[in-house]
Amino acid sequence: MFKILKNQFIFALFILIIGPLYSQINSEIDCYSIIAGKSATTDNSVMLAHNEDDYGEYVFNFYKVPGIDRDKNQLINTDTEAKIEQVSRTYSFLWIDMPQLQFSDSYMNEWGVTIASDQCLSREDKPELVDGGIGYYLRRIMTERAMSAKNAVKIGASLVEKYGYNASGRTYCIADPDETWMMAVVNGKHWVAKRIPADHVAVISNCYTIGEIDLKDTSNFLGSSDIIEYAVKRGWYDPDSGKKFSFKHAYAKENSLDSDGNKPRQLAAINFLSEKQYKLTDNLPFSFKPLGKVSKEKLMMILANHFENTQMREEEDILNDPHHFELNTICSSGNQYGFVAQLRRDLPAEIGYVLWIAMKRPCIQPYLPLYFGVSRIPASFTHGEHEKALKDHFADIDRKDIMKQSAFWQYIGLTDASDKNYRELHGFMQYYKAKTEKNLLKNQALFEETFLSLYSVNRNSAQEYLNNYVSEIMMENLKNTINALEILK
Predict the structure, then answer these.
(1) 408-420 and 422-455 are packed helices; what angle lies between their axes, rounded to 10 degrees?
(2) Phi, psi for 402 (deg, rounded to 5)
(3) Whole-number mean pLDDT of the chain?
(4) Which of 21, 145, 256, 358 is a plausible cystine mate for 338, CB 3.0–4.6 Å?
């Protein structure tokens, strides 16, 4: 009991000191990612879990973009003045499109390269940008061209070094079926990347997590050649201090590393998974060995967490709406979607790479399997052709009127209704979510076995079986969501 009270006192003191400072940074930033190496998971797959959080009422769309032969003489017209040379072929990919937003799309390509990101504010106030720099197109171009996570880092690095990154800062979480990297970029032309060991897990919550670096060790680190020199020049690092250079302590915006909007969320997942337990006052690790093998179900549970079973919430407060808690929770009011990418090398890409996606709010919606091999998306979950979607991404149009048939208005409606009556509806929503997920996870092996049997005989039949399987799941979930919303009305 004394230990619990002591921890609560430390946490309360932490909030009193750091809370006001964090509100000066941004109280509406809470994307979240977890990466697990293939030796750290129960099925030897690489896993990337991500909650995409953006404040406002948005819809998102799924697209399956085919591989395309390109004219190398063409230029990519970006959302800035930068024009980027095209390549002879771009790879096929799944695209989660968040219209209007610059840094919210997620991708998975035909090589299993999967990319999501978390905003990380930097202290850079004198960025070097060419032609307006690059932002939105950075992850898209990495997805179109990369055959591995490390290859994606190098492609992204060449663009950042040429044009400069046009936002404060960000960490791109990049996975493939063999390894995983985090690439931290800073406003301007500085960046650094670190590989997550295969038997480790890494957690990030909107602040840089890469600390000490060794750019001579190119198997585990990559980065700007002057990353330390520039920090010394700006007065962010003193080589005579006796301390080793730490990227996050040198380049992060003041107070972002220990803010109450970031650190409690990072701590919660680390302590759920790590063999070592940490305190809020600790310097949290970039990555760590998990206590036991990590499953996709465990990652789904964490993405849906509101500090239940942690020192951050009082037991009697658990039944109150957690999405408007005084701290940013992992599953937050800003959730637009959550996913767990499962990347398996020992299966054909069509089913080896799968996005388990929760629409809108991971705590009340089940994770549905979107296999990479789908060739069509149900009409309610997409809008038009992918070429036009890219062209219109930043267009100033009334999307609510255009996308009246979008499934996501139903998910938004159910989320709003659930928040208004959280205490009464929580049990019902949790029951439906758990029952649906249990059936889907149980059926995964049978579906994949049947697909492989068809695949070995007739790939067209296997393709149609896959399309129908995914479509039926998505449409059934939409039907159940509409029915629940009608009942609540």
Answers:
(1) 150
(2) -65, -40
(3) 91
(4) 358
pLDDT for the residue 308: 87
Long-range contacts of 3-6 (CB under 8 A, 24+ apart): 4/311
Distance between CA atoms of residues 34 and 175, nearest Å: 11
> Do 403 and 477 form a contact (C-beta atoms < 8 A)?
no
pLDDT tens digits along 79-112: 999 999 999 999 999 999 999 999 999 999 999 9
Taking the C-alpha atoms of residue 235 and residue 257, their distance in angstroms, rounded to an integer, is 18
Distance between CA atoms of 347 and 176, rounded to whole angstroms? 14
- Determine the distance from the C-alpha atom of residue 209 to the mean position of all C-alpha atoms in its chain, rounded to a whole number: 15
> What string of DSSP letters covers 148-188?
SHHHHHHHHHHHHHHH-EEEEEEEEEEE-SS-EEEEEEEEE
* Long-range contacts of residues 397-402, Cβ cutoff 8 Å, at least 24 apart: 399/59, 399/99, 399/100, 400/57, 400/59
Q: Which CATH architecture has domain 2-343?
A: 4-Layer Sandwich (3.60)
Cα atoms in the Cβ-side hemisphere of radius 13 Å centred on 322: 24
Residue 402 banded pLDDT, cuts 50, 70, 90? low
Under 8 Å between Cβ of 201 and 34: yes
Rounded-to-integer distance, Cα 47 and Cα 416, Å: 30
Its pTM surpasses 0.85: yes
Q: What is the pLDDT of residue 327?
A: 80
Helix (H/G/I), strand (E/B), else coil: 380: helix
Say which residues have a Cβ less than 8 Å from residue 423's Cβ, sequence separation at least 6. 319, 320, 321
pLDDT range class, residue 6, cuts 50, 70, 90:
very low
Strand 61-65 to 68-69 pairing: unpaired
- Looking at residue 57, its pLDDT comes to 80
| 41-74 pLDDT per residue, tens | 999 999 999 999 998 788 899 999 999 999 989 9
Give the position of tokens 């407060």.
Answer: 317
Rounded Cα distance, 425 and 144, in Å: 42
Considering only 206-220, 320-334, 445-459, which range has the smallest mean pLDDT?
320-334
Q: Which residues of 192-213 are buried (b: 16+ CB within 10 A; e: fewer)?
A: bbbbbbbbbbbbbbbbbbbbeb
Spatial CB neighbours of 239, under 8 Å, sequence gap ≥ 6: 228, 232, 245
Going edge to edge, which strands form the sheet with 201-204?
Answer: 287-288, 201-204, 32-36, 46-53, 335-343, 353-359, 368-371
Picking from 372, 379, 489, 362, the residue whose alpha carbon sits closest to that of residue 436 is 362
